[in-house]
Amino acid sequence: MKIAVSGKGGVGKTTLAAGLIRILLDKGFPVFAVDADPDLSLGTLLGFSEETIARLKPIVEMRDLIAEKVGGSTGFFTMNPEVEDIIRDFTLVSGQLRFLKMGAVKKGGSSCYCRENSVLNALMTVLVVQQAEYVVMDMGAGIEHLTRGTARGVDWMLIVTEPSRVSLNTARTVKELSQDIGVRRIGYIGNKVRDENDREYLVQALGGENLLGCMPFNTSLLEESRTGVMDRSFAAVAGTLEQIIEKILHSEKP
Fold it and tell me: What is the pLDDT of residues 86-115, one digit of tens each?
């Protein structure tokens, strides 16, 4: 099962991704967690120390490694580099959890990032199409890491949204982009839901059949997510996360 998590920046998708990963681990599943968010905070929420995460440089910033993989720094380079050894050598392991810090896809500007992005695309293809574990990807505020090729391996795109117009607009855009590249199972998760009015607002805006669950507004969860220690607040929302995971696991694969 391959799960991508996306949504507007600040909506709480990294915290939610970490919670879903913990539920899967508690169920005994091996999980490969991929941090593809520019903020690069998933690892600390999964229990790795800040010192360990700081030593693990994002793949996208490893210029020498990337140059080696794509054939140097000349104008010609391979678009499909071999990356299995990167996954092996730069993955943190803790029990049944494996963690890879990819970094963000680079966009246009003063420099060309074709080489970096070719390596990230190759990594995503291997992770989504070839890995046997459950793969959960924290995608940041978009789906830049996914292409039409990798999308065929994604079982679910989970879009996290707050009960606000701006957040919902981003969520709808992510859904359209996901559909454009061929992701067939797309579900919304409401976050920071304060009361029944908030929940009904999301149901009316998204359709109840598309809403996999709603996470309550939780001050403790917000505070603990900043420190990377989520044990107390996680227990308070574990039931909701469990219900979301059960819906995903019992869905028919497209």
Answer: 888 889 999 999 999 887 665 544 455 577
Percentage of the chain surpassing pLDDT 70?
A: 84
Tell me the one-letter amino acid at 14. Answer: T
Q: What is the DSSP letter of 252?
A: P
Summarised one tens digit per residue, pLDDT across range 180-212 is: 999 989 999 999 999 999 999 999 999 999 999
Question: Under CATH, domain 2-249 is a member of which superfamily?
Answer: P-loop containing nucleotide triphosphate hydrolases (3.40.50.300)
Cα separations (Å) of 185 from 2, 54, 68, 140? 11, 34, 37, 19
SS3 211: strand
Return phi, psi of residue 103, to 5°.
90, 175
Which phi and psi angles does 52 have, rounded to 5°?
Answer: -65, -45
Distance CA 230, CA 77 (A): 43
The ranges assigned to domains in the chain are 2-249
Amino acid at 56: L
pTM for this prediction: 0.85
